[in-house]
Amino acid sequence: MNSTPPSPITNHLIDRLPQQERASFLADCQVIDLVFGEVITEHGGRISHVHFPLDSFISQIANLSSDREQLEVAMVGSEGMLGTPLILGVDESPWLALVQGAGPALRMPAAVFGRHLAQSPTLQALLKRYLYVVMHQLSRVAACTHFHQVEARLARWLLMTQDRAHSDELHLTHEFLAMMLGVRRAGITLAAMALQSRRLIRYQRGDIVVLDRTGLIEASCGCYASDRSLYRRHITGGGAALDLLTRPGEASAGKS
């Protein structure tokens, strides 16, 4: 089983700010604990705070006409922030924000965030780049959902979750996975069995253990590697030092 790095105690977006600006920004943040299953914002709800996960992660879920018509369109962990519409001056959430990984996060009131944004060209430039990354990834999710097989999409999703959970052990039911990927439970069962038969994962009673991360990357669709490269290119400047998606032994393979 591939080992995972220690959990980060920071947020990579905030880390990109110059020291003085970072200190000022952090002074206006509150450290909170996100609880698994907690709804931070409803679809169409008002965004009262921005959240910067530290060792937690949040699913952003698109809702259509009913609770059965849901699809995860984005996932945010210590690489990003929740509340991107505020960058555009909009305080309405386009999705349901659901805590998927419990743990600490930084929280700042929307009005305070707006003042920091107005006063800091550096923060504006950084978050505009991040917003571009999010937009690019959202468009890729739409294409991935339509064109790629469930097995490859499941492999990608497990890798994304592993990155943000900082663990090889994940507690995920078929019902939950089906909702996240927008497919039937039978499709998840077949895809999970296929990955397990290749000894990439072990699945039992809602617990998934990643056994072979390298093999899982090979089984995933190309969207996973593309998202990693996109984040490095626009946020970390091509370097891997702050890239939570780069793990031991992958530094060379991860470069584009």
TrEMBL record:
What GO MF terms are annotated? DNA binding
UniProt-listed GO biological process terms: regulation of DNA-templated transcription
Write down the superkingdom of origin. Bacteria
Look up keyword DNA-binding and say if it applies.
yes
> Which Pfam family is one of this chain's hits?
HTH_Crp_2
* InterPro entries linked: cNMP-bd_dom_sf, HTH_CRP, RmlC-like_jellyroll, WH_DNA-bd_sf
Q: Which residue range or ranges hold the HTH crp-type domain? A: 148-214
Ordered alphabetically, the record's keywords are: DNA-binding, Transcription, Transcription regulation
Official protein name in the record: HTH crp-type domain-containing protein
| Species assigned in the record | Halomonas chromatireducens
Lineage summary: Bacteria, Pseudomonadati, Pseudomonadota, Gammaproteobacteria, Oceanospirillales
